[in-house]
Amino acid sequence: MSVETQKETLGFQTEVKQLLHLMIHSLYSNKEIFLRELISNASDAADKLRFEALAKPELLEGGAELKIRVSFDKDAKTLTVEDNGIGLSREDAITHLGTIAKSGTAEFLKNLTGDQKKDSRLIGQFGVGFYSAFIVADKVDVFSRRAGLPAAEGVHWSSKGEGEFEVATVEKAERGTRIVLHLKSGEEEFADGWRLRNIIKKYSDHVALPIELPKEHYGEEKDKPAEPEWETVNRASALWTRPRSEIKDEEYTEFYKHVGHDFEDPLAWSHNKVEGKLEYTSLLYVPGRAPFDLYHREAPKGLKLYVQRVFIMDQADQFLPLYLRFIKGVVDSNDLSLNVSREILQSGPVIDSMKSALTKRALDMLEKLAKDKPEDYKTFWKQFGQVLKEGPAEDFANKEKIAGLLRFSSTHDASGEQSVSLADYLGRLKEGQDKLYFLTGESYGQVKNSPHLEVFRKKGVEVLLLTDRIDEWLMSYLTEFDGKQFVDVARGDLDLGKLDTEEDKKAQEEVAKTKEQLVERLKKVLEAEVAEVRVSHRLTESPAILAIGEQDLGLQMRQILEASGQKVPESKPIFEINPQHPLIEKLDAEADEDRFADLSHILFDQAALAAGDSLKDPAGYVQRLNKLLLELSA
Length: 634
Description:
This protein is of the alpha+beta class. The protein has four domains: 5-237, Heat Shock Protein 90, CATH 3.30.565.10; 241-383, 2-Layer Sandwich (Ribosomal Protein S5, domain 2); 407-492, 3-Layer(aba) Sandwich (Rossmann fold), CATH 3.40.50; 501-633, Four Helix Bundle (Hemerythrin (Met), subunit A) (Up-down Bundle), CATH 1.20.120.790. The chain is 37% helix and 19% strand. It has a nine-stranded mixed sheet with strand order 1-6-5-4-7-3-2-8-9, with helices on one face. A hairpin with a 4-residue loop joins β2 (68-73) and β3. α8 (349-372) runs parallel beside α11. It is elongated. 39% of the residues are buried.
């Protein structure tokens, strides 16, 4: 044992303490995954060394053969995982093993419920693999030296997984990292060669480095060699380089968990080799659960990039558009140079061509999932639907394809689930219907009861109900589908086209003429609140409604802009009245102008509330309503 210097005891970051506690208790039912996590980290360390050595070959220190070794000592009850990858400096050990430098950590911890099954999923997607060692170990020692540093600058990190850890400087001749797990009482199964071999074959067969175990000898003690003989127990070839016909579903699934740092199975994958003008291989996955930082658009995302099987970078975000940031996987190119950098990746014909093809492949994969496994697609939609809705604005070329993948609630489905596709909707169009109707609002409960739907209910016409905050913005880009225009039923002067007969239109004109005087009186009273007053063709049951001007912002967009501190352009709604409603008949007959004004304001405020808007003068509304109630009870 070499002499330790500069020894100090440091406290874990609060978040690490919480995670350690949760991990030890939440993942206990599937504890063998700790070995997959440690091997995965070792594989990443080898990838990083290989990449850095492209520019600095001296980092290989004469040993270019990279491998992972797993050994054990039954008597000492220890398990050791060792790699000769990039290694850690003293600062790296303190930073990477003592803190979690991830944005959204506090938000992530807030989502933990105490339900072991749910929490284990969250912990998995957070990607804190190293700490899983404490599921089976009551003490973990890490001996490491970063490639390029002198032997005297090795580091020894040690902790019992409680509140603190020790770190000291030690002599370490070889670069890389050695992790020694002191197994808890009852965890001796992990100091058994047969058990370890099975775990490695099950979870890490796809790792592209050789994973070696000591060869076991079953003869006399004296027949054992002095030095262990090592044998490779995994396939040790990059999974994506093998023919698809040779790869089992379980192998694809385990590789996803390695590349996606996830504990759950993916919903779908697509493995493809492109040859010809461009040459590259891609393996794309659709996860089953959204990461906690999905809506932090600046959070790291992207595919693992390899060039000619050499790892280049972890999150290359140039190969897929932002609205597909949930897709995980690898891309291995023969057409990029080995010294490629993020700057070089920003643009260029090769990158553009690969991005276009990979985007199409990802969308095809989602189409196939929707067609072949509708229940799995429902899961996907719940997790990633709102992100996919960013697509039509970002990707004009694939707008129609993305639109086909979107799901909505509608008046046709009483469950309120977003399960209606545009193809479903088109299949149910009424005879003569040449428009696609939709209504946006705060919640399903609010929009399904909206007065704007009355005429559509009467005619049996389906309307899409859009309640996500992004929906109004989405529909400003998604203006048509399959050659038919989208129409917001709350906007402008509603034109039902051939759904209205000539008799309907004639009757509407005649009724409107009889109410011209009432419209003028209302305009005068509500002059400050409305842009226009007119007779409505939308209403069958309600007395009045507010419509939005053709070019005005809707309620959702106004609220989004206001919440982000942006100035919202002034606009006034259009007040529409139902000429056949008894309240409107009563209003028309009201001779007292003050009373007429009060009733008009009450009807206007009620229409605003029905539209989901807040009242500009709630006290005035209450006063008028109370006055009316007193009159009625007198």
